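FYI - complex with pyridoxal-5'-phosphate, inputs then prediction.
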Amino acid sequence: MQPARHIANVKYAIRNIAAEAAKLEAQGMKILSCNIGDPLKFDFQTPPHLIEVVTKALRDNCNQYVPSAGLKEARVAVAAASKTPLRMEDVFITSGVSEALDLALTSLLEEGDEVLLPSPGYPLYNAIAARLRAKVLSYPLDEEKGWAIDAEAIAKLVTPRTKAIVVCNPNNPTGAIATRAQLEAVLGIARKHDLCVLSDEIYDRLLFDDVHVPTSTLANDVPLITLNGLSKAYLAPGWRVGWLTFNTPKLMPEVMTAVQRLADARLCGPGPFQYAIKPALEGSQQHVPAMMTKLRSRRDLMVSKLRAIPGISVVEPKGAFYALPRLDKQWEGGDEQFVLSLVRETGVLFVHGEGFGQKAGTQHFRVVFLPQENVLSEAFDRLATFMKKSK
Ligand code: PLP
């Protein structure tokens, strides 16, 4: 029995590289993991008030199916937390942002339709497009300008088959934050060509200094879907709670109906965990500054350690917990080979830039700077030694 052909294009580098590391670990090697964006694998904990609410829901027999679009109180809370007016009906609660993206893109894209995705960008977007047999056109983010969105490059890619543009802000894997002007330029292109903008804002609260501008605050005349959830700032990735909001529902009632039909067909997202949404959005946010204090010193340590290594340069991330440093010279076999050689020789685990759809021929690797400073320090020292040896 053979799997369907379109699966050949579904790749997820983050987990593929982890499989190699698991093999090395089984052979007794200690791995310094700077590869997975799960804060719970490090010294971050889910806020206790959220755990209490979910535990109570489990005990109180709230274990049945919930409505396919989500628990009412959760939808109301997401609508109320939005910076722009939303109705409960505009909100769909999903199994993480992953499923929200899947529902939105499946509702929008026919086979052969084109979707504009950031490069570098989060690989799930490409995986979903591959499954839908949609065509991906990657728009480059400009490393020289701090990984800025280059609207001119986007405009050149639009064809009559283009349906949607995905924006990831703050971005995974670069940690860059889009400016108001960049977002307005994207919205201008969408307006001109009647494209839907999907704004993935899952890292919107994990900011160092810059402000985050929600795309929805900049236009009410462009088809716009915003995605967010509890996995990152609310430290509950395993609960699989996310949502999508239709910010301009009047411009896309049929797409909303399509999302509702898909949501109905899969019954519902995980019910008991949806009870955490209201207290997450309306309760104490204390854990966020606490998290950012830790992340700031880890980011600063990472940047200074990396900049001290000859042959590596890095744009300082402004949000989230990722950076995408560059190797100044070509590595034989590309950046995947670099990451594999590094982990085999030193146990330090990153993900190669190519896994994030980075332009062919460029040499990058993604660092997750969630680990504690002693681990990061050790990892970058080993990287420095490895770079020196391979000169
Ligand atoms: N979007 C981006 C940019 C991400 O980095 C991630 C996870 O790392 C997701 C979506 C998936 O989020 P979730 O855990 O809510 O499915």
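The first helix runs from residue 13 to 26. The domain at 5-45+286-389 is CATH 3.90.1150.10 (Aspartate Aminotransferase, domain 1).
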